[in-house]
């Protein structure tokens, strides 16, 4: 009997079909965030995926999605997945559970998401036993790409970015105060994603003391405000997300100075989730 494993972030969803322990199909669709998207938008993504994937029935569907899953949300997701895939076994979990399973498997440990956003938890091998709330990019998300972009653009509008970097930024990106306000506060897409999109430009200047302090300070805040609240003396940390993975050379020494052992860097959790469920 075939099984579906789906890891749906806010930007894209990665669907895998597994049969007899082997992956037999893959599909990429738009992502889902059940906290910020309408019910119709989320259901549309699931129905489109069902139409494109091999026909069921499926023995199980494991669906991981960004956003806070309430009983109400779980109810209509289960109903839609059952109708679309004909499965009697449906598991719906958050992206943080996905990251914990991918980073730690069935062993105790600490999972840290470092992507456009950030999140973390302590995992006992089966469930989350402690979580420092993320807060999103406005009141949290320390260490993330979106917060690095926010720190930079906040300095830019206040005239605190060194002139040579500010001038280059102004030639390449929306740079007037009204344009920046529009992109952050009236962006029809994702303000967090736009802020995160500034990171390649910022990191191109990592050799400059200003940028190095900004980048290192962002990761240090994640260590100090989040990871130190876990048992980092006992358990290693698995780091999930493209942002953290791309910046391993920066992250490793900052974590090492804090006494944090790194279990692994995982660009995206889907491959490990397929192994977990297989």
Give a description of the structure.
By secondary structure, this protein is α/β, with parallel strands linked by helices. The chain folds into two domains: 2-87, 2-Layer Sandwich (Nucleotidyltransferase, domain 5); 104-267, ATPase, nucleotide binding domain (Nucleotidyltransferase, domain 5), CATH 3.30.420. It contains 13 helices and ten strands. The protein has helices at residues 39-52, 71-85, 95-104, 136-139, 145-157, 163-172, 177-185, 191-196, 199-203, 209-225, 242-246, 248-257, 270-277; strands at residues 2-8, 12-19, 22-30, 58-65, 89-94, 109-114, 118-123, 128-130, 237-240, 262-266. The strands form two sheets. A five-stranded mixed sheet has the order 3-2-1-4-5, sandwiched between helices. A five-stranded mixed sheet has the order 8-7-6-9-10, sandwiched between helices. Helix 3 crosses helix 13 and helix 10 crosses helix 12. The longest helix has 17 residues, at 209-225.
The chain-level structural class is: alpha/beta
CATH architecture of the largest domain: 2-Layer Sandwich
CATH third-tier fold name of the largest domain: Nucleotidyltransferase, domain 5
CATH class term of the largest domain: Alpha Beta
Question: How confident overall, as mean pLDDT?
Answer: 92
What does the main sheet amount to?
A: 5 strands, mixed
> Spans with pLDDT under 50 lasting ≥5 residues?
none
User: How does the overall form come out from the CA principal axes?
Assistant: globular
What kind of assembly state do the chains in view correspond to? single chain
